[in-house]
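Pinned message: reference record for TetR family transcriptional regulator
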Amino acid sequence: MTSGAPRSARGTERRAEILRAALEVIAERGYRGASLAAVAERVALTPQGLLHHFPTKEALLVAVLAERDQWDAVPGTGWRLELLGQLVEYNAMRPGIVQTFSALLGESVTEGHPAREFFTQRYEAVRANMAQVLRTEYGERLPSGLTPERAAPLLVAVMDGLQYQWLLAPDSVDMPAAFRDFLTLLGED
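Predicted structure (tokens):
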């Protein structure tokens, strides 16, 4: 059911169930190790039944990533830096989701990976959104003299880099506290 036709409530429910199962399988095995058969088995479908909802493994992956982004939707305007801190705290409560996202991001840097375009476009939008957050907070120049556009990739790098460090050493890296420390470096109270 990937056409523009309206979905039944049962079809929409089934699709959400498949996306949750796919997220679990990818978290356990990585994208390359995940199979459509393993996802289908988790939702009591045949692989052919799964293909009715998602015609390819790549289509399923992109749907999983888009769904995950809906959970964390950060609008381009109206966010303040302290709310980004709340997003970091929220992510600290969802290690499985963060692990899956991080694994897929890492895999996507290889040539030909089906999520490469998704992440490339996503990061372009995220950097623009973060530049707007910084502009709202500081105007055209941060206290350091950097423009919001120059600082935005650094803000994104801190958020993502903290996730990797936290996943590898959750007892040693307090992700929310480290992000608050970064905001202090930016000049936040």
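Pinned by admin. Summary line: The chain is about 70% helix and 0% strand.
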